[in-house]
Amino acid sequence: MKKIFLLITAFIAVILLNGCGGTIYSDDYYRNYVGDNLTTLFLVDERGFSYANIPYKCDSMTQWSYTAPNGEFSFVVPDTCEFDFNGLNGVYRDALDDIVRIVDDRNSGKGGIEYGCESFGISSTFSDGSFDYDQNDVCSFYL
């Protein structure tokens, strides 16, 4: 009787534990559901220090997110991603500016990305990945 009870308990434990791994997203999830167009870039300043906690939302997302501590953000190509630069002064090349650059994992600037900001207008990123924006601006990047 003890052996049957232990066997049943072990069987139930195996069934319960086997069902726990279904919600973890793997590379297969992104390949099958998001596709191979998932791209990751980074927001950094002119010295390469990251901009963490910048709110952003892309077309492929259902809610706003924040850049990671290393400035990382991900999107699906072709997405339009909106960034809220609240608290930053974006007048490029003035004495008080907060330069933001969009770079890849090798810190290479992503020039030529088209974007538009609420108060600045439409333009494209410079060759080092930096761009013009006004203080506390919200900008949309056409990635």
How many beta strands in the DSSP annotation? 9
What is the CA-based Rg, rounded?
22 Å
Strand content: 25-35%
Low-confidence stretches: 20-33
How is the main sheet built? 6 strands, antiparallel
Write a compact overview of the structure shown.
The protein is α+β, with helices and mostly antiparallel strands and 143 residues long. It has 2 helices and 9 strands.
Write up this protein.
With about 140 residues, this protein is α+β, with helices and mostly antiparallel strands. The protein has one domain. It contains two helices and nine strands; from the N terminus they run ααβββββββββ. A six-stranded antiparallel sheet has the order 3-2-5-9-7-8, with no helix packed on it. Strands 4-1-6 form a three-stranded antiparallel sheet, with no helix packed on it. The longest helix is centred in the N-terminal third of the chain and has 17 residues, at about 1-20. It is globular, with a radius of gyration of 22 Å. Residues about 20-35 have low confidence and may be disordered.
SSE diagram, text form:
Layout: H1 2-18, H2 27-34, E1 38-44, E2 55-58, E3 65-66, E4 72-76, E5 80-84, E6 101-103, E7 114-117, E8 121-124, E9 138-142
Name some characteristics of this structure.
143 residues; alpha+beta; six-stranded antiparallel β-sheet; three-stranded antiparallel β-sheet; 2 helices; 17% helix; globular
